[in-house]
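Database export, one record per block. Field names are fixed; values are copied verbatim from the stored entry.
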Amino acid sequence: MKLGAFSVSLAVADLAASREFYERLGFEVTGGNADEGWLILKNEQAIIGLFHGMFEGNILTFNPGWTQDGVPADGDFTDVREVQAVLRSAGVEPAEPIDADGTGPAHIVVTDPDGNTIMIDQFVDRPDD
């Protein structure tokens, strides 16, 4: 199963202060919209998302169809609906399931045994969708 790019999505109290802090660690803004309350930052292969007022707690995030370099994966990825089917067959029920017959962008959320939130967020279409 190919889960795609990995990042940590951080719920932040002050977007500007968090941006400044992570820029001091060598991260650079590569995406997002500060006016909407979110930014994506990268330092080599490490990716973090800063999100103000969008969710509680931090989230481990995987993006099927997206590479760690921030480009589409050329169709060589596991669709989020297939990820959901594999997880269900392994006894892991998503907290936020999706329509197994759907197409295009979608996301599922699962929680690990320690209560950590994991989001598998596919925001690209498969080439055949």
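Remark 1: The beta strands are 5-12, 28-33, 38-43, 46-52, 59-63, 106-111, 117-122.
Remark 2: Residues 5-122 form a domain with the 2,3-Dihydroxybiphenyl 1,2-Dioxygenase; domain 1 fold (CATH 3.10.180.10).
End of record.
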